[in-house]
Amino acid sequence: MTKKRRKRHTPEQIVKKLRDADAMLNSGKELAAVLQAFEISEATYQRWRNQYGGMKASEAKRLKELEDENRKLKEIVAVNSLTSRCSNIFKRETGKP
């Protein structure tokens, strides 16, 4: 049995697929047929709908950029906090300022 490789979709692709899915559903297609056409699960469809529903492609791209920036900033804060704690422990144990 071959394992299907996961695909990563850009925010623009997700918004386009959601728009196309809406058009297909409005034209009378069943949800199962739409999901099969886009090769996504119902859980993925619902997650995308909750996260990107009603957004334009540019807004979705900006959201992704902000989420990435936020992740990087959190990492920087964590590293600085750890460095500060280590420095304080070193000062306390060695008695050096």
Task: Summarize it.
This protein has 4 helices and no strands. It has 97 residues and is an all-alpha fold.
Describe this structure as you would to a colleague.
The protein is an all-alpha fold and 97 residues long. It is built from four helices and no strands. The radius of gyration is 22 Å and the shape is elongated. The N and C termini lie far apart (63 Å). The mean pLDDT is 88.
List keywords for this structure.
mainly alpha, 0% strand, 97 residues, 75% helix, single chain
Quantity of strands, as a count: 0
Show unreliable segments.
none
Main beta-sheet strand count, sense and barrel state = none
* H/E element order: HHHH
Q: Shape from CA axes?
A: elongated
Mean pLDDT: 88
Radius of gyration: 22 Å
Helix percent reads over 70%
Beta-strand percentage?
under 5%
Tally the helices. Answer: 4
Broad structural category: mainly alpha
What is the straight-line distance between the termini?
Answer: 63 Å
